[in-house]
Protein 1
Amino acid sequence: MRNCWIKIFGLIVIMSFWAVPGVARAGYDYIDISHPFLRKIPIAVPLFKKVSSGHGTDQLSKSASDLLAETLEFTGYFKFLDREAFLVNPQADAAFASVNFHDWTSIGAELLVTGGVLVQDNLVEIELRLYDTFKEQLLVGKRYKGRLADERKIIRRFCSEVIYTLTGDRGIFDTEIAFVSTGTGSKEIYICEFDGYNPRQLTHIKSITLSPAWSSDGKWLAYTSYAKGKPDLYIKNLRENRGHVVAKKGINTTPAWFPNKFELAATLSFSDDPEIYLLTGTGKIIKRLTYNKGIDVSPTWSPDGKSVAFVSKRSGTPQIYVKDLDSGQIKRLTFQGRYNTQPSWSPKGDKMAYSGMENGHNNIFVIGFDGQGPIQLTHNEGDNESPSWSPDGNLIVFASTREGPSRIYVMTSYGTDHRRLLALKGRQTEPKWSPRMVNK
Amino acid sequence: MQKKLWIILAMVFVVPGLLFTASCAKKAVKEDTSLSQQAQDEAAKAAAEKARQEELARQRAIEEASLKEEAIQKAKDNFLNEDVGFEFDSAVLTPEAQEILKVKAEWLHNNANVKSTVEGHCDERGTLEYNLALGERRASSAKSFLVDLGIPASRLTTISYGEERPVDPGQNEAAWAKNRRCHFTIN
């Protein structure tokens, strides 16, 4: 799948036009990284100009401009201006070849994306430009050639350029989300793209399969499955048909890959007590990480790999603890509430998302290592569980029963902009956001 | 006159003859009843009684056997069907749970060739990964208790299903209480 992606992009001719000195250097001051969702940037995305004529061009003009708006909207950074309010006919020259910035600033747009589409048989050429309307500057412009079927990939590629220009981060448009669904009657693992597009079934075990976990390079997925009748740990290479199994006595659960290494932590109970161990990617024990009679489960690594957080019942109720691997010191992180589980360490390392239960319902909380919080991100909407951060740290994917059967949702890391990612047959649970996949 | 003579002659010869035969026959009959017939009757009676007793005993045995079988089956059903309950977020054996486990230990003791799997289950509240660990703790609590009562550990396997296999899909305390359990199966 990934290879295919790379090949297709290899075929697409990508041209940056205007020599670099002509392109304004964005200072990454458009989006306040520490509070990116406080003020959404007003952006205008008019229908793309039809360079060729015909039904195919008409369709692509509409679908590509809509897709670009949807894709950018996913980040939570932007406020999209209503096309009805635009002063310029998108098919006029003024909309593309030359831009009258006043037409856009007067309706409140601070950013503008224009595009031109050309369709020839099965081939397309799409030119896209991002402008700062107040500075009257072109921030980034690209021309892509490909097949009609590459529309989504081209749009995402440009969105990635837009986000890179504005924030200095490549964004999440090449990421995926693994989750568990019961559509076939048993729990199996599925993978979809970051926006819920193209969900596909990964496992066909016809048993209970749980808790997917991505390796840092996105090449491996570890999960627990009852394929052999008991909860064993499977470590699967996603591109090649090979893998490893950890099938010790008792449970073999909650895999969590060590950052940028072919190693992972997992909960094993072969000693008659669930403890967390560090394993090689082939499933051999390197060392034991917890020593406590009673439940220790659900490890999550700090991005630098120096600490591991986990759930323990050592104080009587399930709470989240952090172990510093060098000193061996363990500190309790959560003190509010009597049932705090499913920790997920933020990619920037500064926060922990987790599920906290109050009055019989789970909700998602975020607590900062600076003593901030916990802040509750979901409220009074069924059970909200299994938080997992997007690799840029801006979004959190989670499972919720707010609409009945459990579904996968995404919100910003500040708890705003909730959206349902997909609704498949059965129940969808345990989403895990992949790392970025490009060049890996 | 000649006719009268014939009648007299007949009387003289035939009647005594009839008498003789009659007495002879009577005598023979009398002998049978008094001796062999009586013995036969008694033998038959005894035989019948014996048969009756045997039949009764046989029926009693069947009944006993079926009762015993029933009791065996009942004990087995009980072993398989009576689950060990738990409090929320707990793997501690309550006094009631311990009583149920003592009965299970007795059954395992009486059925020394049986190997059993202890399944640990949780209610749907709480979170999935933690519940898998909690189910494991429940199963191993029950197993340890049985081992302490003398059941060899080698006869007991544990498996956790977490919250994956509820017996009651309801979303109320009664359903949750049923789902927080250790269930026993025979391997």
Protein 2
Amino acid sequence: MEYSETIVKLISSLSFAMIVTSFGAVTTRNLRYATYIYAVQALLMTTIIALYATAAPTLFIWSAVAFITKFLIITWLLLSFIKGLPEYEIKAIIGFAPSAVIATVLVVLLYELTHKYVHFLAPTSMATEEPFRTNVAVSLTIFALGLYGILTRRDAFKTAIGLCLLENGAHLSLVSLAPGLHETVIIGIVTDVVLGVYMLLYIIKGLREVAGTTDTYQLTELHW
Amino acid sequence: MTGTELLLCGFGILLVGAILTAIFGRWAILNGWIAFIFGFIGNLLTFIASLSFLMGEGNATYIMEEAILPSIFYVDKLGALFILVISFISIFAFLYSIRYIEHYRKNTALYYPFLLLFTLGMIGVVSVKNMFAFLVFWEFMTLTSYLLVIYQSERPENLLAGFRYFFWSHIAAGCIMISTALLFVQTNSFDFFIFKGTMPKISQQHPVILHSILALFLIGFGIKAGMFPFGNFWLPDAHPAAPSPVSALLSGVMIKTGVYGILRFFLWMLPPSPEQGVWGAIIAFFGVLSLTFGTFSALEQEDIKRLLAFSSIGQMGYILLGIGVGLALLPKNTPLSYFAFCAGIFHLMNHAVFKGLLFLSAGSILYRKGTRDFGRLGGLIRSMPYTFFAVVMGALAIGGLPPFSGFVSKWLLVFSATLSAKLHYEFPIWAMAALFAGGISIAYILKYLGSAFLGLRIDEKREDVPLTMQISQFVLATFCLLMGVFAVYPLQVVHFSLQDSIPNLPSYSQLFGTGLSITPQLRGLAVAIWNPLLILLSLAILSAIFYEFIRGTKKESEVWVGGTMPPQRTLIYHSHGFFLTLRKGIWSNIPNLPLPRVERLGRLSASPGEDVYEPLIKMGRGFIDKLRRAHSGLLQTYILWQVIGLAIALLLIFGLK
Amino acid sequence: MVCTNANLILLLVLSPLPFSLAVLLLRRSYTLKEPLTIIGSFIPLALSIPILQRVLDEGYISAFNEEFLIDPLSAIFVIGISFVGFLASIFAFRYMRQEPLIRRVGIEIFERRLGIFYSLFLFFLSTMLWSVTTNNIVILWVAIEATTIASALLVSFYWDRRGLEAGYKYILLLTIGVTFSLFGCVLVYSASAPFIISGSPLLFTNIKGIISRIPANVILLSAVLFTVGFGTKAGLAPFHPWLPDAYAEAPTPISVILSGIMTETGLYALLRTLGLFLPSYGAVASSLLVLAVFSMILGALLAMVQGDLKRLLAYSSISQIGYIAMGLSVGTYLGYYGAFYQLVSHILAKPLLFMCVGAIIYSIALRNIDDLGGVGKHMPVTMACFFIGAFSLSGIPPLAGFLSKLTLIIASADAHLWWLLVLTLLSSLLTLFYAVRAAYTAFWGKEKNEAIAKAKEAPLSILFPVLTLSILTFLFGVYPQLLYPLLHAASVLAPFK
């Protein structure tokens, strides 16, 4: 698949923006803003997929699917859940400044890793070439950031956002790893993701109502 | 009916009995009689079957449908001997249980079915030729006996004892299973005969594997047989916990199945070879260890059944010593080896009878007096004269006094071990140890006799146990004497039992001469002689003289208690005395002997809980607690584990590539 | 309707769904929910019999261009899932209507929740059946993830703090874990796509043929991802922490399903995916073996110190799953046979034990060993069944667990893995320790609580599944020939050889 120079550049810059928004969604303490940033991230992802679709038209359907599920539904779910929550999240385990350092290290590390060992990782020769190589790096970074978010945020709601980011990373990687995947399969995957996020949020809501807390530090009644 | 049919018939009757007794559990006496009738008929049939196998030419094989398990039942003469012993003792255990069990006031549906199945399991263990079936019966036996041990489950110490028994039995089963797996890999079969056939090949090609197999078998069967460093962990706890007829079965016959295993795999399966000699010497060594340890520890006990349990360890030592000496000498091809085998196996039969008897008598005391503590017993000779008589007979047998059964086997053992000095220099030393321990066993059995039956009376009323219990005691007591006086017949049976296992075994008369007297022949010369009639005669004359001597001097008086009547029973002369004297006399005079002190040994066994389990448990608990606390409940930790797990999987897969 | 393979499979997977929908719609009804659930879970069981028959006759059956495929391996799981599902639905019939819960939330809300419960229950069953019948590598992932989603609310059915906490950890840990394996599925798919000329590159049957042409690195990488992802679902240590929480806090019928079949479904996915590589990549098997042994020992050790009976059984599940995975990674015929036997004995024994604990909870609302004691006098049948389960777990003849463990031990000896043999025996000793200890401290000894004096045997609808499982545990222990054709067919199956 051939992409024009501009599209490749556009993809690169959008990818960078996506990393930044992911980081923002993880570290922003205001829950509402974090959700908005997530929405931007999802929108960016939709756009990136759409840009990839210029060379492979089937990806337009992917883009549409991502737009509906990742952007519309999940953002709506998150926003409707946010009502009644305090404005700010519970203080995270790792603060903003160290997080920034860690995130930078992660980005550089994963970029280096995917570029140096791309032959090692990539299932097909296509994935070893630009812009797919960058795509793999970016999606892995977002996946790692999502995981990082879940690992370091104490607020259960933020872990849900972390999970969404993680799933977005996985979804984005499909573009370069498995562009030939059938649409029904993609729909199956995203349905799972959406339902999973819904169930998670529903349970967190229950926790907030019954236990009165969404702090994972306090959710340690089941132990040993 | 052929022997095979009799055997299977016996199995069937035992099974039917188990089902019936499970139904009539609420009516204890009725259920007891049902159990006795079925147990009696079933065991009688297996008894007759085993006799027919022992005397006759053929072996029992029963071909089941190939698809299920190819021909699992097979009784050769070695197995037949064990069936003989098991069935014989079981009959009396059933007879004794009828009245005995009533003082537990519990539903007997938890007792009789398991008792019937237990005997079935034991007979099953010794009558199969397939390792798989062997393991199934072995576990079946363990399971049913475990349920019997914890019959009185409302007492926590019984549950603990039962648990120890179960746990150690499964360590034993684990060892046997590893060996089985090793054998299976080598032979691709579970069949004993194929094991036997492949043995020479394994010993040539993989000597290490052969030795590991044998070592594991020895540990596994040794645990069951109560061999010293292994068996003492469960045996002293489990025997007292079980109801007395079950103790009698456990100690009298079940631990013998361990010996059966040793005989089957070290004698029958191994071809005469240097390996056999080496393992024989090892078994003999463990035998000596057990007999020393068991006998000394028994002396220290304050509980009748515990004393008897330790004594079982000691007596198993004799049996193992005999078998070990026999195995060690077998490759050297000398008749001494056969004498040692006969001694060991004959002692096994004797032990079954007298230890069964002694446990039943302990049960009688428990039945009437409600305690097994020597400190709270005394003077029972008046209230329970028949039981006293039975215990005296058992004591004379276990002490190895002529003309009782224990004497003949110990005598055979000691002389065969002593005469083998040229071949194995250590055996005479073992023989000395056995003789010495024989003396100690008289001491501990006198402790039992003296503390329980002599001394101050605890009450005057004459109330011996019910008739059925007396009968079982009486018959076994009689056998203690008969098997000594007419030792020829059981010895012939023992000789039969070895025919399948030792090729080219000389005939009985070549070994032991003819007639009622036993004259072991070495190179055509009688090297010793046991003539019961002569001994009886001389004993009679001696007794007459002695009686004449003391006739005029006999007078009745109260036990001397230091001038005044003690205010409390606890202050009277105690059963400790039997041990303290010995301890003072022997051990304090040689304080610097670099040997493990007998107190230490005694303590190790008297409460294995404190010395062995607790440090282990503590250590384990600390470790497990750390593991447990790692599950802190914090979500983030768990996710971190996933990430670490991912890293480990990466390292493993790419590292192992 | 013609009983083609396609119809059968489709009906098998989909038949619980209309009932699920009906229960959801009729959730206000007081009487219809349970019968509908029982029927809905009975149909798959009824269908699995002809399916089994056909699988044994024809080797395998497939439908829709092999999108769905049932070979003997899947058939074991199909039977297991539908059977345990059916028994669990019978068990739930009386068990779920417990007074304290109804009193806490009020009858109206309770009925509504119960409707959702049964509806999700049937849906859960359907997703599990789907995941073991699909032949599509990505759909396998989708179905596995769907089982997580369907069961999350079931885990936190009681909607109290503990239940919700368990549900939260359950869904989050599982979703993260399983997402790893999505990468694995996609990697395998796209690496094999260029080599597959005809047919869909998503199907296992197609991928298997060209697996040797995929670059080794991709295979190893995806093996790692599968191990982490489906390993989490299967409850292998160190991915297990969700498991004890979920098992302990879920309502007992759900614990039964989770322990008896859901983790096994995870194992099935692991087996299917790693089964693609196992023959030619020893490293994959060895690393799985390490994890398996680790779980085996860790689970048994932790089970020894648990007070809560359900938590104890949960840790024991980790250990038992370790056994199965151990047998699979030994990789010989005997290893597979032992693993499948162990699978069957675990599918029987663990639900049995959970149901016995459920019966105690139903009767006296106690489940901690320290509070129990002497229950056996009042509940003899439960006691007998619990002992059968505990003995089967610890491998005592003549129960199914003995044969399976013996086979595993022989398999490891056969493969000359002596250390493995010793560790297996060690852990079965530990199993014996905790299982028997739990059994007798709960059922014998002193009654430590006055509530126990009022204990009585649970109603028949609770005892029926318990008894059925006990009988089968015994039956498969004394008559292993019954299982032989199926297990043999699964063990000689090409993907693993």
